[in-house]
Specification:
Elements: H1 26-33, H2 60-71, E1 74-79, E2 85-91, E3 94-96, E4 114-115, H3 118-121, H4 125-139
Antiparallel strand pairs: 1-2, 1-4, 2-3
Helix pairs in contact: 2-4
Length: about 140
């Protein structure tokens, strides 16, 4: 099966724990998240634009930190116009971006990006709640 998220072809990293059953690689996580991502898990500033047709819109940081829980590695951010960061994962040099589809045909530059921290992102309480929601829903499976 082909995917449209950045790095899917090489996203063969294994989970660092068995907390989330049935997830063997980032493609498995993506498949499951397709049924969990929703308007609530979208960044509030983008909710009016969110739809099932653009399901990954506004889901980047909460998804990237959830993927970090599962696969380890680091979360990096691409500085976007307006000063926000688009987050993605780097696990031992394997780069994947489960939410890159929200940008359509735009090519993002994954080089020389800034390391992102949970402290920085989760200082926004609403973002922490969205991350916890995704994590809780994933654990139910």
């Amino acid at each position: 099966m082909n995917y449209n998220f950045y790095g899917w072809e090489n996203a063969n990293v294994a989970p660092i724990s068995d907390t989330y059953k049935g997830i063997k690689n980032p493609r498995d996580l993506y498949d499951i998240l397709l049924n969990i991502w929703c308007r609530y898990t979208c960044a509030p500033r983008l909710r009016d634009e969110w739809s099932k047709d653009n399901i990954t819109l506004g889901q980047c940081s909460v998804t990237a930190f959830l993927a970090q829980d599962i696969f380890g590695g680091d979360v990096y951010g691409i500085l976007r116009p307006g000063g926000n960061y688009h987050c993605f994962n780097n696990v031992n040099g394997v780069i994947f971006d489960l939410t890159s589809e929200q940008f359509g045909d735009e090519k993002l530059d994954y080089d020389n990006c800034s390391l992102q921290t949970r402290e920085m992102h989760f200082s926004k309480e609403e973002k922490l709640h969205r991350y916890e929601y995704l994590s809780d829903e994933l654990r139910k499976l």
